[in-house]
Design a protein that fits this description.
Helices cover 59% and strands 14% of the residues. It is built from 5 helices and 3 strands. It has a 3-stranded antiparallel beta sheet. Strand 2 and strand 3 form a beta hairpin. Helix 3 crosses helix 4. It is elongated, with a radius of gyration of 17 Å. The N and C termini lie far apart (41 Å). 11% of the residues are buried.
Length: 109
């Protein structure tokens, strides 16, 4: 059995790539921006705000929730979503470490 491509990279590299994939879609960025402004919302608010189909919004919410970046609580027949503060901070810290590892003064091209 061969090595999977992800086995060639460190856990941090794979983690950053996973986060980057989730941030790579503009609809997910828009959802996150809305949640950051509104603090919490349900699917229908996002449909109204973004103008995307409910099924499309649901798929993007699923991706964000699978990563743990958002969380939802059931209220009646709808789910209210919000940012998972701990995961948000972890992802922020990982990308900050990555970007801060570059010292423009020590490299020349």
């Amino acid at each position: 059995m061969g090595v999977t491509k992800s086995d060639l990279f460190s856990p941090i590299q794979n983690e950053l790539a996973t986060y980057a994939k989730v941030f790579a879609h503009p609809a997910r960025i828009a959802i996150l921006q809305y949640l950051l402004r509104a603090n919490t919302c349900c699917n229908t608010h996002l449909v109204e705000e973004l103008g995307l189909a409910q099924a499309t919004i649901s798929q993007h919410l699923k991706e964000l929730k699978n990563l743990g970046l958002i969380q939802g609580t059931v209220e009646g027949v709808s789910v209210n979503y919000c940012i998972n503060a701990e995961k948000w901070q972890l992802i922020k810290d990982r990308f900050t470490e990555f970007f801060d590892s570059y010292d423009p003064g020590s490299f020349s091209c």
